[in-house]
Structures are given as C-alpha cells and as structure tokens.
Amino acid sequence: MRNKHFLQLLAAVLPLLAADVFAAENLVVNGGFEKYTAGSMPEKWNITQSNAEGVVGVTDQDAVDGAALSIELKTLKKSSGFVGAVQSIFFPALKEKKLVRIRGMISGRDLQASSLVAICGTAGKNGKMTLWKTIYTKHGSFDWESFSCEVEVPAASQYLSLSFRSMGPGVLKLDNIQCFWHEAGKNSELQALNGSFKGRVNPDNGLYPNWRAKLYHGRETIGDYSSANGKTVMIWKSGAQGFGIEPELTGMLTPGVYQASAFFKTAGKGRIAAECFARSGQSLGEQQSEDFTSVQGKRCNFVFQVPANAGKVNIYLLNQGKQPVEVSAFELKKISNKLQLSKIPFETEVYPPERTKLLYGKPTLSLIENFPLPLAFNLKGDRSLLNKPTLVVDLPEKVRLRAAFTNQPSFYQEERCKIENIVRNGKKYYRYRIENAEVFKHILPVFRADRKITLALEAAAGSTGASDPVYYRLENNGIADDWVTLNLNILPPLKKIDLPDTFRIYRWQAADFYYPAGKLLNRTWDQLALCGVTSSNGFYGDRPQREIYKQAVRARGMQFYNSAVNDNALINMYSKEEIASLGKYQETVSHGRSIHVKRFCPQYTITSAAYKKIHRARLARELKDMRAGDIVAMDYEPWDMLYWCYCQNCLSEFARINNLSKTPTPDQIRAGYESQWIKFRSEQAFRFIRQEAEFIREIVPGVILADYDYIMDFDNPEALLRRCCKDPRLLDEILDMHIPSYYHHIGVTAFNAMRDSVSNLKKPIMPICAIDGPISGYLAPGEVLNAAQIRLFTLAAAVNGCPGIWIFPGIHIDASYFAAFNQAMGEIAAIEKYCLPVLPESSDIKIKARSFSSRTINAADKLIIQYFPDWNESAAFRSVKPSGDRAFSAMLNYSNKDALFAIVKVKLDKGDYTLYDIAADKVVLSNISAENLASQGVLIKIAPEDAALLEIRPADSNDANLPSAEKQDELEKQFQQIKQQQTGKNSFKTIKNDKFQMQVCQKDQIEVRGVNFSAIMHEKSAYVISLTANGRTCKGAFGEEMIWAPQQYRRLTAQWQIPSGKLSADGKAQLSYKGVIEGLNVKLEKVFTFDQTGTVTVDYRIDGQLPADLLVKTRVFKAPDTKGIVFGDMPMLKFAAGERSFAGSDSQAGGLPGDRGGQYKVNKVQLPGSNGTLEVTFSAFPAGWYSWTSSDMRTATLEWAASVGAVTRYCVK
Question: Residue 1043: which pLDDT band, with cuts at 50, 70 and 90?
C-alpha cells in the first residue's frame, strides 16, 4: 500500500501528460523527432547547409527517449560552412519585443564546433530580417545533457527560425527541443536555480552551486559526490542506502500537480522524491518515485502533488543502492492546478508483513501457536476528509483476535470491533470491523510512530501449518478499497526452556506489545520470556495507560530500560522556553558539508553552565520512572566530524591544545592536521558523553549505563573516528555496557568484530543488529537477516562472550524470529558455562574446514592456495578448553548453500571421550580415545546457515541412551558424493605446455593456469569466475554478457557449447566458445585470450544481423577495498560502428575516464583511427578496466586486466 496514492495520482495525471499540457506553449513541433519517414527529415524540420555537405537524419540509437536527430558534417568546402537542421515558427506580428526561451537535450562526439542560431523577420514578399544571432555554442565529446538559452524577438517579427548547426567534424545529436514565450508572471513559478548543473564545483563537497547534500537522519550513510561536465555522480561508501542531492528552488509554490525530472545514468538504483512541509515547518510526508535503472542513461520523470496546506517543498535526487548514480539536467514544472484525490483519503502500511517481503517473496503474516502477536496497521491521511473511517479484517477460523487497540501517543486504549461470521473460499472466517477508531482523529499526512491500530492475534492450539490467508481493506464514507491479501504462516508453539543466567535480548522499542494490562499482557510476557526478552521500556510522557503498564512491569519483577536518551546536543530536543533561557548560544558551524540537523557547538555543550542546566533537566524528565538496576541507553551520534564544528571557540581551543601560534582555517586543518582534529573531536565527544553519564547517575543512582556506539577496527582506529568521533576505548572508562551497531556487519565479519571488541574492551559488549527491511531505509536487501541468520548472530554473541544482544527497532518482528530466539536461548543456556564469562581460546583444538577442491598457484613469486568453497568467508569457529578433560567448540556455517564438513582434533588428557552436539541434541561420536581424537579427529557436518555446538567430555555409559548423529563413514560418503558432484567429469580435455595448463578443476569450471596467474572459467556460461594475478584475486561473473531486447522487456541468453582450448606458439592460451543468442538468428563466437601478465582479452565474432535496439552489457570488476576486490555491473555499449568507451570502478560510468574518487588518474588517451593506447596510473587499488571497440558491427574486442602496478598500458585492438 506504500505507493498507492502515487499510483492513483499517476493514473489520473497520465491522460494530461499524453495530451501535452504544454501544447499551447511549446512553439516547436515534433521536438522529440518521433514523427519521421525513413530516409527523410523528421516532420516540420528541414536541412540547412552552406559550403558543406553532411548527413542529417533521425537515429534511435543513443537517444534520450525513442528518437534523436543526428547531424554529421562530412565535407567542409569553406571555413564558414555548416550543415544542420532548422524549424521556422510563425506567429502574428509582435507589437513589442518578446523574450523566448529554448531548451532541450544535446550530445556530441568529437564535435569541433556547433551552434544554435536564432533568425527572426517579417513574412511576405517584402519581408526582411529583424534578427540574426548565435545564442548557444558547444564543442567536444559529451554525453546527453540539457541546454537552455533565451533570445529577445524584435517587435514586428512574424517568425523565428531555430537553426542547429555543425561547423566541423564530429557528430551532433539533439532531442526534446522546446521553445516557450516568456510571459508576464511566469518567472515566479517554482524552479531550480541551477538545474543545468553549471558553475564552479565546490571542492569541499563535490557539488555545483545551488545544490546541497541530502542525508537522512539516523541512516548512518557515508557517500561522496563528484561533479564535472554538467553532471553529478553520487557514490555510496558505507552505511544504509538512500542519500542524494537537493536543488535550491526559487519562485512561488502553489498547490497542484508537479513533475520533477532529471537525466539518470546508473547500473544501480536512482530515485526522485518530493517532501512537502506545512507552513509550521512540519513535514507532510515524502512522495517517492519508483527506482530508475539505466546503464545507457535516460530522462526520468516523477509526478507528485503539493497540497493546499504546503508552504515549502524539497526535491531530492537519490542514490538508493550501492552503485554510483549520475544525474544531470534537472527540471521542475507544474502540470496541473487541480489536485487529484484518492477515493480513500487515508492509507496503511501493515507490519510485520511489509518487512517480510524479502523473506517470503510476498507480504506474509507469521504467527506462533498460543503466542498473542501484534499485527500493526500504520496509518496516514487527511483527517479532514474522514467520514466513518473503517478498518476491515477477515481472519480464518484458527486465528483469534484477542485485542485491538490504538497506539496514538495519548491513548493506548482498547477498540471495540463488530464481528460477523462469513465464508471465504468455502471456509469459515470472522470479519472484524473497527470503525471510527480513536487514532483516526490524530493521523497525519505522513506515517508517524504510534498512529496505528494494533491487533493482538493468536493462532489456536493445533493450527501449526495452517495457511488460509488473512484479508484486509479500508473504507471511508461508505466507499471500500480493494481487498489486500496476506499469506499466513503458523509455526509450532515455543519450547519450554531454561533461560541462561546472564544472556538476554533487549528490544530498542517495545510499543507493539503495549497490550492492555491483565491476563493477555502476562500471557504475552510469558512467551517473550521464552525468547530471552525479560525486560521492557515504558510509556514516555503523560499518557493515560502509563501508570497501569508501569505497575504491571514492576509487579512482574521485569527490568526497565530507557532507550529514549537521544542526541541531546540537537537543538530541537529542547523547548522554546529552554532555548530562550540560554540567552546567546553557539550553534555548530560546518565547513565543506552542511550538517542537516541543527546542533549546539560541541565545545559549548561542555563549557556552558546554562546549557548544562537544561541538559540535566531534560534527562530528569526522561528518567523519572527509572530505578537502580534499570538500563539507560544513550545515543549521541556525531557523524561527519571532519566537517564540523569550526566556530571560533572550537578553532581557538584546537589551536591551544596543539600549541599552534596561529588559529588554522578548516581547510588547513583537513589538509595538515587531520589526525590532531580527529583526536580533538573524539575527546570533545567523550567529554559530552561523560557529562551526560554523570547527570544520569546523579538522577538515578545505581542505574546501568549503556551507549549506542560503533564497531572499531582496533588495528586502524582512525577508520571509525574520521567518520564518527566516538571512541569506545575512551567510553570504556565511564560505561557499564557498550551497544555497538552491527546493522551493516553480518556473518563472519560480525563474528570477528565481536571477538575483537570483547578482547580489546573491558566493559560488556551487547551488539545491536537490525531486524528490519529496506522499507525503513536502514538496511540494504543483502543486510536483511532471516530467522536462521539471526539465530547465528545470537549464538555468535554468546560464544564470543557478549552477555546479550539488542534489536533495532525492536517492534514489528516476524514470528519466525521469535522462534529463532527461543531456539538460541535454549542452546545458550546449555553452553553458558563455556563462554559467559568468556574463556581464552585454546590452541589444543584444531578445526579444518574441508573444501571440495583446492589448488596452489604462483602469483608474482607468491604461492597462493585457492579453496572452493572458501570457508574463511562463510564459517567461523571459537574453541575453549576449561579443563584437561573437557573442551567446547562453536562452529557456525554462514553459507546459505553449502554444507560445512570439518575435521575437529582435540588434545585432552588420556581417556575415552564423547562428542555431543548440543544444537542437534545428538552424540556425534562416543568412546573415542584421546590419542585418536588428537591424531585422526572427528568429522562434523553442519547444514547451511546452521551451527554445531560441540561439547567434548569424558565418555559416560548414559551416552548410549542419547540420539546419535550420522556415522563417520556415512558423513565421509556424503562429502565424497558432494565433491564428485562439484568436480565430476566434464567434456573439456586437459591441455598444457611449459607456460600454460588448462584443465577441469571442478564441475562446470575450467582452470587456466599460467606461471604468475590463474583464471577460473565457467565451462558452460562463458565467463571468468575468478582471476588471480600479482598476488590479488578478483571474483565474479567477469565477461558475462547481459543481452536485453528493450522492445521485449526481457533478457536474452546466449547458449554456449563446451569450449575448445588452444595454446599458441607466442606464449598465449585461448578458450573458444561458440553459441547462439536465444530468439535471434545470430551466432556468436567468443574467444578468451590469456597472456603471462594476467591480461585477458575477449574477441567476439558475430554471424547474423543484430537488432538495432539490442543492448549488451557485461560484468566487470570494481575497485577493491583493503580486504579484496569487490564486484559489480558496468555497462558495455550498444553495437555501433566505431564506438569506444573506457570505464574503471563504479564511480566512472562510461565515457573517457577522468580522475574520480581518487582511485585512478588518466595520464594520456590517444585514439588515432582504430588503434591507440590508454595509459593509466592507479593512485590506490587495482580496478577492472575494459575497452570495447566495434568497427563493422560484426567484430568487437573487450579487454581487461586485474594487475597491480603503478602504470598499466592497454592496447585497443
């Protein structure tokens, strides 16, 4: 339901767009060149030329939208010659001069000179010219970009001719040409000050004038901007995805329907958003487009509404993924004065189903038998239009509604439902109608916390596996919306378990379980306790249910925690009266990047007595319900500290501390004193948090004090501190508990970070992960943990010595996660003695994960062993030995596809031993001697996304009564079967000489091994899986074609035969693939050539006519980080004669590369004719580069390398 209003609006507005609302204003006819006959000029356009000959015509290749006009001068007879296209516009004689504006899209290739000439005059026999003026010029090579210009048409004129001309070699292309009279009053319309991305780029933030960064508060996003040639590239670095830029707008905002558009180019995800604000400054909600993806680049439009109560609008151009997004040519225009209203003036998001789409493929409601779980309907809308608003929910017979209540902040009251027995699909259902709920009086135009109706739903005993759907719809004023279906997934009841003594799970928020007190609340708490959740936060502020709920928590003996101690350095945390009491105060001063939330200066917060007074008073209000033993979690987040605070107080203090004779400027600090500034700002942050901690302990003696902070690489601490200046080593002195953020750290990375943090910090580590989805903006799709992964995260925390975990946001958790917590808590209770408190790791326990194949290669005189699978990336172990006759090993398999087989060897005292897997509740092996356990070891199998919790203890006669795991010989047989499947016989025959060897290394994979490099090829899909050269390895589907037929909106596949191998006399190796493109009468031959440097060249030979609209792109390597080379998509080009492109990392999106992101620099590009060289200096890491050439539309060459070196030369074939 998230985009419901947008879709309804779009349906209403599309007819307006189709009718061309600007038809009365746009003077140019057929400015998009769509109307034309093959072999002739587009309608209403004529060729114009003088002392030159050339080709002018329509092309549908490399067009902005469907078609474009191409102008190419072939022969220049005189220096004044030109060739081009012209359209004449006629109108009644002007009584006075009048301004006209022309705009459109333009691109050029090797363009020596071009211009737009405006010619005006009078008509008839005696007509005369009143104006001849060049109003726009352009030259060079450039991708599609917008242009705009204007000219005054003299009085008495009766026509205007627009003459687009090329005056030399090169190709000029035009599209979307428009021309408008400038009418009185129109200049006040809302528009961007610099939609054409012109002017001097700000070196501090990489943006053009009148553009600023857009960051979403709380997302912890790190991104960079690079601007050149009328374009800005938004480059994601880390954190959540979703950031961008916003233009400065000018003109009058009036209610109506608007269209924002920009030219987007990305292999990732671009988006346009509009956020309206009331005159009070309150946000009225953000309207967002669908995501845009276009490797070729295209103009993207977004239609949005500005309501009557809006006083301001912000437009955002966003990067919603990890790939760079290039934007240019932004335009904003009003397309209608009439607002389009939905038939239902409110809408809902339903949780948890909104978050479970990635887990189940579609919105799904999961329930657990006998566990009343919340289904929350988050609401927004225009409450002035509500008339008997109603939520209708149909539940199958086996699901009971135990309570319905509103979460509006002032109420939390139970709602009455009308109940009706109905039949759906031949089965019994109950229909619940909740009319005029209290929350409808408080909904806002934007989704806000607690504007929701929550249903406490319980699956009846014996209903496990039931799958009858749940249905809901909205009604208003007797009009009903469409039914929405939620799949149902009922899980077994939670197991009755003994909880660990010390390990607990904390939820940052708990408002979804604020059930009305009584039996329902206590039954729910009983179930939550089985998941390790034995604490709660409480209502905040003055709310009627607050005392009842608080008393229920205290009566049960539950621990309270307060996670509302937010960033108290934010100015908006305080009332107007408190701000007034400060008198003159110091705000943060930023330099180079604007800080999107107003803050007090950090130096001011730790030195001003007036500020300290209101700081302490605010904490006292927030903590009035807390007692000794409760937890208070602080949340101070000083991100982007290199850009603030540069007020005079901070600069003077920095100079004093560092004994500088002269106060430095911000630029001087970032250029020459970065490390000192990081230390200074980290100490400022520490002093602020220490001050807050002292206040809290004064207000609530005996409180447990925690702080939300971040993971530190203790070998490189500045990597964290240059982004966020919270140093956990300093905080260790004042906290009782660390809550480091693991939102973007999962799997083995998270496991190792937990181990390092526990080893380097004294206070308990309680990692916080996010059970969330991309819908909230905190996580990328690949960071969304499923239930199996959250169990592994919980176990990883326990075995590394963390006494618990936190969950953010903590509400709207799918039932499958509670089942995973229940399982993990039972397991942790059984292993607690081995890890809480943490014991040192033992070298007497050796674990060797078995891969299905491996090979050793010599790369730059360095021996590298490659394993398949590489368990270093997807398995983690921790082993302890508490005594001479007892050991424990936690073995976690993070792979989602491969079972882990591992040999475990343990040195113990003499005797016989039993290996018992606590997780599986099975004996792996019993009565194995200490000698055999140390020498031969035991084979363990762990399923994908599962764990073995292996207890090694003296054998006991009772072990025979326990369930047994599979026998050792059966496990070995399984391993060999899987190995055979992975490395079984292939039809490719081994060939070798003294320089190369080609052989099957495992199923569907061929290894090409040279003296100093190795490439692993996919046998049947014709691409490189990994390339190792000069001591580094690149991984990914390198060289794989992605062939799209745009008119069919589907991907075509190439069917390849088994390749043939060849070793040439000149020291090169070749693999030749032959295949056909599905659905086309086109044959392909694809030849990979390897030389001893690690360079790989691909030659294509094409037999058959390729469609003109065929789009081909390939996968190439991105620039690596310090941990290795990562991988992504980059565009190849359409098959077009003579077209060339070079690209490096994702910060370079085609065209001749420039110095972007500090990753590489082009020294020289020479392309004489069809041959040439490109010389590149890498400033940091190697990147995957490719060059593509095509001279006859039948042959092409793709070349890349993964080499590491200062200078690498690439030759275009």
Answer: low
Report which of 257, 276, 264, 355 is spatially closest to residue 318, judged by C-alpha positions: 264
pLDDT in tens, 722-768: 888 999 999 999 999 999 999 988 999 999 999 999 999 999 999 99
Question: Using a CB cutoff of 8 Å and minimum separation of 24, what contacts does 921-929 make?
Answer: 921/962, 921/963, 922/962, 922/963, 922/964, 922/965, 923/959, 923/962, 923/963, 923/964, 923/965, 924/950, 924/965, 925/965, 925/968, 926/955, 926/959, 926/960, 927/955, 927/959, 928/955
On the question of pLDDT at 1187 being above 60, the answer is: no
Last residue of a domain, one of 305, 336, 367: 336
Count of CB atoms situated within 10 Å of the CB of 1088: 23
124/729 Cα distance (integer angstroms): 86
For residue 631, with 0-12 CB atoms within 10 Å meaning exposed, 13-18 middle and 19 or more buried, which class applies?
buried
The last residue of one of the domains, among 121, 156, 183, is: 183
Using CA atoms, how far apart are residues 1103 and 1088, in angstroms rounded to an integer?
18
Span 1163-1172, pLDDT tens digits: 233 322 323 3
Domain range for 1023: 991-1212
b/e sequence 447-478, b meaning 16+ C-beta within 10 Å: bbebbbbbbbbbbbeebbebebbbbbbbbbee
CATH of the domain at 276: 2.60.120.260
Contacts for 370 with CB less than 8 Å, ≥ 6 apart: 458, 459, 461, 493, 527
* pLDDT tier, 678 (very low <50, low <70, confident <90, very high otherwise): very high
Q: Is the pLDDT of residue 337 over 50?
A: yes
pLDDT of residue 1151: 29
CA angle, residues 197, 202, 206, in degrees to nearest 5: 75
Helices (H), 623-738: 648-657, 666-672, 674-699, 718-721, 728-731
Q: What is the pLDDT of residue 682?
A: 95
**In terms of Cα–Cα distance, which of 275, 268, 556, 159 is closest to 1147?**
268
Rounded-to-integer distance, Cα 164 and Cα 114, Å: 8
Secondary structure in 3-state letters for 820-872: HHHHHHHHHHHHHHHHCCCCCECCCEEEEEECCEEEEEEECCEEEEEEECCHH
Position 1055 pLDDT exceeds 80: no
Find the angle CA(152)-CA(156)-CA(158) to the nearest 5 degrees: 85
Whether 1099 is in a domain gets the answer yes
**pTM beyond 0.70, yes or no:** no
How wide is the angle at C-alpha 172 spanned by C-alphas 170 and 176, nearest 5°? 170
CATH number, domain at 969? Answer: 2.60.40.1180
Q: 21: burial class by Cβ within 10 Å (0-12, 13-18, 19+)?
A: middle
Buried b (16+ CB within 10 A) or exposed e, 301-335: bbbbbbeebbeebbbbbbbbbbbbbbbbbbbbebe
Q: What separation in angstroms does the CA of 892 have from each of 416, 747, 870, 873?
A: 48, 9, 14, 12
Q: Which band of pLDDT confidence, cut at 50, 70 and 90, is reported for residue 1135?
A: very low
